[in-house]
TrEMBL record:
This is SAM-dependent methyltransferase. The keyword Hydrolase does not apply. The chain crosses the membrane at residues 241-262. Keywords: Membrane, Methyltransferase, Transferase, Transmembrane, Transmembrane helix.
Amino acid sequence: MPSRLPEPGADERAHSDDLLQLLRGMIASHGPLPFSQYMERCLYAPGLGYYSAGRTKFGAAGDFVTAPELGPLFARCVVHALQPTLVALGEEADFLELGGGSGAFAEAALLAFADSGTLPRQYLILEPSADLRERQRERLAASLPAELNARVRWLDRPPEQDWRGVLFANEVIDALPATRFTLRDGEVYEEYVALDGEGRLMRVDRPADALVSGAVRHVERDVGSAFTDGYRSEILPQLPYWVQAVAGSLVAGLMLFIDYGYVRREFYLPQRDDGTLMAHYRHHAHNDPLYLPGLNDLTASVDFTALAEAGNSAGFAVAAYLPQAQFLIGAGLQEIFAREQARAPDEHARYRLSQQVKTLMLPDQMGERFQAMLLARGLDVLALPAELMAADQGGRL
């Protein structure tokens, strides 16, 4: 691994070694792991995975910064876009956040809902990490008025009973365990993680099963060309099942996904022949997912065409698809920014607000790399801001 990456401390290295021993044991007992299983263990193994252990992940002290960590503008725009739908759905409408991160979004969103005079019946957080859940509890208890904090409830699994409301997921799809594939002599192979003769992790390819092969052939048919031999990328054959699992009981409402990614024909460009997989460690991005397992956030960009297909298969229609910058403009960023600037206590606070806008909006930062997709089901009227709908680029899917 290049020396430009920060050197881990002794405790971090010991933590990674513990996960490495678990992975070695799994491979020794069951054979090479599909990369998706390896990624799942690296991110979510109880007590050892990246999101399951106690080290700070988000913000300046962590490994990366998400939009909610920048400040309240992002959450206020999301609330402004979604609040009319909650009003239309009535007093029984809930708000469900998938993966609550540090709790920054929930804090800002609940305050924004309170300012708007419309609160969801419940603010639900589906958080698989016990460590992050506890951090969220502490943050919200310390920062929110008691009457707002009382609306928050954590879930171990998606709602099983039918419900109405809004589901929101920021940078969630990119962390789903990705399948890596390649082509050899026109046949589809799947990437696995194995051990070399000295017990070190290594990547190997094996013939893909029918699910993975079928998913790759579907992409080829959709883009109108076959992948060349040696082309390597990621795919999520489980995505339709995942969407059905998390949103199957949402009988009326919206889903909003914001993540970095592309429409399918851009995701699988010929020149993007090693995929989009990245590892993030202390604000450094690199492309070796086998380096220090458990200490790196592993992510892959989102194929938003696949997300649209998965939503369709679960009974949802695409309501809008557009870059994050256009979404935020359509969701009232200009007015929200002006209001927050007027409230700012000093010049430093106003400067920080301006920096938030730059990071959220500039094309070389989050503005164009991140995309927003809204999916709807069971609504008589689509209550979204007209400016947002006017910027819809769903035809690109």
